[in-house]
Amino acid sequence: MLQQRKKTLAVMVGDVQVGWGAPVVVQSMTNTPTKDVFATTMQIKELAMAGSEIVRITVNDDAAAEAVPKIVKNLRDVWVMVPIVGDFHYNGHILLNKFPELAANLDKYRINPGNVGKWEKRDDNFRQIIECAIKYNTPVRIGINGGSLDDDLLSANMEANAQLDTPKEAGQVFIDSMVESALLSVEKALEYGMPENMMTISVKMSDIQDMVQCYTMLSEKTNLPLHLGLTEAGWSTKGIVSSSIALGLLLQQWIGDTIRVSITPEPGAKRSLEVEVCKNILQTIGIRSFQPLITSCPGCGRTSSDTFQVLSKQIGDEIAEKYDEWKDKYKDFTTTNIAVMGCIVNGPGEARNADIGIFLPGDGENPTIPVYVRGKSYKNLKWNKVFEEFMAILIDYFEGNI
Ligand code: SF4
What's the whole-model pTM score? Predict the structure, then answer.
């Protein structure tokens, strides 16, 4: 059972609400050079079409800063309204002041307090970014990252810890410093006049246990919305599994108002995979519904052929292909549970528990293919037309005819 959701403050990023009971927001980040206006515009469109509700782009130099207003205009001209977040490191204060159009066109600024400068310069640079945010009425994310935690703060905390009679483990001091860095930055931003309801926080780390502890501690100390992410999650399966576990552990405690999955993409792979993973995490844990959920078994020695695997894939592919049309056309489309099973052992149970379910006969079983709708036996299908007949029943179900 999910616990009671914590009420955080509502922060508006463009037209998207983060926190205060809003659905957990899906975010992503481009990997095109921002100065390449065409490539970045196209990738933002791809991410938005895949379901990313906020997209972040890096703003690392003058060329990127000059490109941002053009990218935003290109997107709005074709009604892609997804809010755009600028990711700043080292020179955010310079770029935001030098390029007013950049500052005005972004829907949020991401600040990494570990990368804004050292000591007095750090405070002054940070203040300049906050003043821009206030001037342009733009929210910020205080984005702490384990890979670039403020050195000065960490060294001071390590030294103080070493003087204690019973010093903490170095790893614990690191986690404490992550949380402290976030909260100190929030405090400073408030001092400089930033309204409280214009800030979100993240404390990303690459170790799952540390990251979960860090966010859990932070959640107890602030009402600001939390942006969850396991940083540097890694490649393909490893990246997906580790992000799912990390985000799942926190979401299960209802910690987190927006999520991003940082998977290293295969060369040439679609960037939108990270959006698909976010959506699957939220849907699988039962927080949001984006598309019909297909439950299917892995198959085993009882499976008589690969028909059930083929069928499961065909149904998934058909739903993906018709997604844009069906999600608007059919009221219950995104919340429908479908079961596709391989034999009589768990087939009838899963088929009955789903909104609509089918199970194929396993080795040596009665060669019928039963379909269940809302828990009741509905029809037996023919072997040679199983996909076509099942899809016809599914559409009838979506249309409310059965
Ligand atoms: S439902 Fe049947 S085919 Fe599928 S995994 Fe279980 S025993 Fe194997």
Answer: 0.91
